[in-house]
Amino acid sequence: MKFNKSELLTASNLLSALRALLVIPLWILMDNLNSSGMRYTVGGLLIFAAVTDILDGWAARKYNQVTEAGKIIDPLADKIIVGALVIKLYLLNEVPDYYIYMILGRDLLILIGGIIVTRKIGKVLPSNVLGKITVVFISFSLLFMLLGVDRSSIFFLILYYSSLFLIVFSLIGYIIRALEFIKKSENESVQKLQF
Asked: How many domains does the chain divide into?
């Protein structure tokens, strides 16, 4: 699949690219996480990343810039920043082993599945609401771990266990959607051959 320059250089795609690039200062700043106020600085950077995620979707719809490239860049930027955050928190002993495996495993399977689906149907499987909700729950769980929120509080526990449920549920949902898109594409191909 090839993309032309004008499709890549849209406002929404540039915002997504900016979000992905935020991983560099995020990673560097987290080396000094226990310095005075650094957790809040990193937290502010993550909130800025979340704002760019909201703005890139808004800009794509508002200016009619929904592109196949954007369907790749936007979720990839989410995966890069969440992946870097969970890896760094894991290295700092802030995240349990199984949590990093679940997050990275889900993202890796979706990435591989996305490549397979794109090759089979010739277009990118778009993100859905369930995937976005999952990223929000994971992001807030990681943000609260970063900020040192009481992990025994009912609020944190609901958020955290919801993120675990959504990681599994969204992966199953993605697999079902991917199979439906492939089946639909194959049926359309058969119908074209019959005519």
From this structure: 1
